[in-house]
Amino acid sequence: MLPFIAGGIIVLGVLIFFHELGHFLAAKRLKVGVIKFSLGFGPKLIGKRVGETEYLISAVPLGGYVKLVGEDPNEPVDNPEKDFSTKPIWTRVKIILAGPFFNLLFAVIVFSGVYMVGMPVYSSLPKIGQVQDKSPAMKAGLKTGDLIVAINQKKINKWEEMAEFIHDYPGKEIIVQVERGGKSRAIPITPESKKVMDSSGKEITIGLIGINPTLEFQRYNPFMAVIKGLEETWIITELTVVSIVKIIQKQISPKTIGGPILIFQLAGEVFKLGIITLARFTALLSVNLAILNLLPIPILDGGHLLFFLIEAVRGKPVSIKKREIAQQIGLVLLVCLMLFAFYNDLMRVFEK
Question: With contact defined as beta carbons under 8 Å apart, do 256 and 247 qualify?
Fold first, then answer.
C-alpha cells in the first residue's frame, strides 16, 4: 500500500508542478501578473504570499492551476499593464502553450537523464533471459541462457525475427534449435494461441512460447542521450495522438481509458521496480498530460487556444457570456470523462 500511495503522489505532484511552472514562468517573463500558483484544487492546506503571488498546496491532489491577473472578468484589475486579457493574442497563446511545452520538455530531460545514467535494454540476440512459469517453453525444457540459433531449420540471428517466426505458428508445432553449454539440441514446442491487437487496432491471433530476452545495461554520452530522449518523447507523443484518434474512431475500446486509481496502481508497481523505471513512467505520463491538455475542450489549455483562434479570425474576442457557457459545458464534459475513467479503474479493481 505504501509504494502505491507514495508512487502516485510523487508522479502526480511532479507532473502538475512542471505543467503549472510552464504557465507561471511564461506569464512572469511576458509581464502578466500571477495571483496564485496552486498544486491541487479545493481548500488551501498551506500557503505563502511572495510579492503579488500566493503559492499554495491545496487539498485535492488531482490537478493544479495558475491564476493570472485579468483571467477572471468578475475581479477588478489594479494594474492594467499586467492584465492577461488585454495582452496580444500571441502573448496569451505563448503563456497557454508553456504548460504542455514544459511537460514535453520534462519528458525529454528525464529520458535523456535515464540514457546518460544507463538503463536496462533488451538484447537483440535471440538468447533467453527468462522462461515464464507454466509456459510452452518451460514445458518443453527451454532454459535461461539458451541461444536460439534456428527454428524449423531456418537460421535465426535476431530476437525480432525469432519472435515474428513464432507468432506465425499459433497452435502448430515448431522445432527450436538451441545452443546450451556448447552443445546443440532440437526441441519441439507448440506455441500457444493468443488474441492481440495489431498496430491498426485489428484483433489477430499469434503464437507465443513464453520467453523474454536478456537485459543489457546501456549508457550514452550526453549528446546521444539528448538525441535518444528527443526520439523517445516524439515516439510517445505520436503514439498518444494515434491512440486518442483510434478511441474516437472506436478502433480502440474506451475501456482502456484510465484515471487516478490506475495511475496510482501503476505508479506503485513501477515504484517498487526502481527509480529508473519510475522516472520513465513519469515521463511517459508527462507526454500524455501535454497532449490531453491540448484537446479543444473549454477549461483545458486547448480550449483557451480555440478561443484565441476564434478571436484571431473574428478580430474580436468571444463574449464573456459565451465563454462562461462554453467553460461550463467543458467542465461537464471533463467531469464525465473523469467519472468514466474512475468507473474503468473500479471495474479493473473488482475484476481482479
Answer: yes
Q: Is 173 a member of any domain?
A: yes
216 is catalytic: no
Using alpha carbons, list the distances in angstroms from residue 157 to 124, 160, 339. Answer: 9, 9, 49
pTM of the model: 0.71
Give whole-number Cα distances, 343 to 28, 141, 240, 349, in Å: 39, 43, 21, 10
E-assigned strand segments in 170-326: 174-180, 183-189, 192-197, 203-208, 211-213, 215-218
CATH at 165: 2.30.42.10
Take residue 107 and report the three cell numbers written for it. 519528458
Residue 114 domain flag: yes
pLDDT value of position 256: 60
Taking the C-alpha atoms of residue 277 and residue 292, their distance in angstroms, rounded to an integer, is 23
Reduced to 3 states (helix: H, G, I; strand: E, B; else coil), residue 342 is: helix
Res 282: pLDDT: 85
- 20, 71, 75, 164: the active-site residue: 20
